[in-house]
Amino acid sequence: MVLTGKRILLIIGGGIAAYKVLILIRRLRDSGATVRCILTKSGAEFVTPLSVSALSEQPVYQELFSLTDEAEMGHIRLSREADLVVVAPATANLMARAAQGLADDLATTCLLASSAPLMLAPAMNGYMWAHPATQANVAQLAERGAQIVGPDAGDLACGEVSLGRLAEPEAILAAIVERLAPTAMPLAGKRILVTAGPTREALDPVRYVSNHSSGKQGFAIAEALATLGAQVALVAGPVNLATPPGVDRVDIESADDMLAACRAALPVDAAICAAAVADWKAEIAPQKMKKSGDGLPVITWQQNPDILATLSQGAQRPGLVVGFAAETQTVIAHAQAKRARKGCDWILANDVSAERGVFGGDANQVHLIDGEGVETWPQLSKTEVAARLAERVAAALSAT
Ligand code: PMT
Question: Is residue 174 included in any domain, yes or no?
Answer without folding.
Answer: yes
